[in-house]
Amino acid sequence: TASPSAPAPDAAALHDSAFLRACRREPVEHTPVWFMRQAGRSLPEYRKVREGISMLDSCARPDLVAEITMQPVRRYGVDAAIFYSDIVVPLKAIGVDLDIVPGVGPVVAEPFASRADLDRLPELTAADVPYVSDAVRLLVAELGATPLIGFAGAPYTLASYLVEGGPSKNHERTKALMYGDPELWHALAGRLAAIAGAFLRVQVEAGASAVQLFDSWVGALPLADYRELVQPHSAAVLDAVADLGVPRIHFGVGTGELLGAMGEAGADVVGVDFRVALDEASRRVGPQRAVQGNLDPALLFAPAPVLERRVRATVEAGRRAPGHVFNLGHGVPPNADPAVLSRVVELVQGAG
Ligand code: CP3
After folding, report:
1. For the chain, which residues score pLDDT lower than 70?
2. Which of 23, 41, 51, 191 sits at a 20 to 30 Å CA gap from 315?
């Protein structure tokens, strides 16, 4: 008979799930697969529940968050769920005036420019985001043995939205601040690291079994500047959940030159976009870390045999890495065909 402290059956199955095993670089029966942006506009069931409700309002409703997070799990049978939220949700929660404009992205009413603006970035506590803890608890109960990935935006990517006021191609204001006033930059990035770290902790303490730190736009920096101006702050975010024992994934776009340093920031798994071959990415990241990726999302629009060949090649390359979680090289495009994503999941999980 089970002792009172024995884990529930789900907890044991969850711990042994292909996704968590791959993150820990343990052998797996099939390569686990999930997709960045697996929830969202590519799904008709998502567009239906989002009708008449704004993105940020939907993120504050635990019932909707749980439903939207579950949609791709039900449809595709992916090996992990990613919490439905956004990288700017914790900023909104501490009072930053911002919105997510459909087709554009996060837009900040008063962009950050000076030392006085630091006062607009107080610490985040669990009490600021009760709907996040509530939604995670609902999800963990519903997901059973399927892991839930919590996430946050990394300091550089968050700063790029705060300083530019919205999405930007070249991050000129952000870089002008970073290079022109490194002291203010470090203060800003330090605040953002504290917020992102607290946001990750809230999700893990409520039951998320892995985290992903998105530094989507950090590929805009050369390695030396990354090491000096960004890595310490991303490391602080990852360190904020180090004691909780969950795998930490770290991802950015166009980060070929930074992969080693992003691993050294404290990641157990490094996310790779499609520009670097998975074998080479794994070499850059080293044997003590797993890799995640990296099918070019554009291949979802290629003829079926071409897609199939590329999926199989990615799975094969991943088998030569110490651990591999299959994913796209970036998010699911809004116009992707869900039937094609179903086929990818089938191929990855069935590739014998
Ligand atoms: O399925 C999932 O991946 C989970 C949910 C998720 C969203 N945003 C939902 C969302 C995650 C993990 C994010 C993270 C996020 N948000 C990142 C990092 C990941 C990446 O793509 O690099 C970034 C840079 C953002 C900022 C952001 N929010 C952008 C660029 C956009 C897209 C704007 C647009 O409309 O094209 C958003 C909005 C957003 N976040 C949507 C979703 C489902 C679309 C809004 C909608 O459906 O109305």
Report:
1. 1-7, 352
2. 41
Residue 96 lies in a domain: yes
Contact call for residues 25 and 319 (beta carbons, < 8 A) = no
Question: From ligand 1's centre to the CA of 88, what distance in Å?
Answer: 9
What is the Å distance from ligand 1's center to 37 Cα? 7
The identity of residue 348, as a single letter, is V
Q: Which residue out of 69, 86, 192 has the highest number of ligand 1 atoms within 8 Å of its CB and is therefore the one to mutate? A: 86
Q: How far is the CA of 55 from the centre of ligand 1 (A)?
A: 9
Q: Give the residue, by CA position, lying nearest to ligand 1 atom 7.
A: 86
In a domain, 161, yes or no: yes
> Is residue 275, in this structure, part of any structural domain at all?
yes
Give the CATH number for residue 163.
3.20.20.210
pLDDT value for 1: 46
Q: Give the C-alpha separation, 104 to 16, whole Å.
A: 39
Q: Is the ipTM of this structure higher than 0.95?
A: no
Instruction: Name the residue at shortest CA distance from atom 34 of ligand 1.
Output: 103
pLDDT in the model for residue 9: 72
Active site residues: 37, 41, 50, 86, 161
Predicted local confidence at residue 4, as pLDDT: 58
Q: What sign results for the dihedral spanned by CA atoms 219, 225, 227, 232?
A: negative
Percent of the chain that is helix, strand, coil (3-state, to 5): 50, 10, 35
Domain encompassing residue 196: 42-293
pTM over 0.80: yes
Answer whether residue 222 is part of any domain: yes
> Locate tokens 């900023």: which residue?
91
Number of domains the chain contains: 1
Q: Please, is 133 exposed, middle or buried when counting C-beta atoms within 10 Å of its C-beta (0-12, 13-18, 19+)?
A: middle
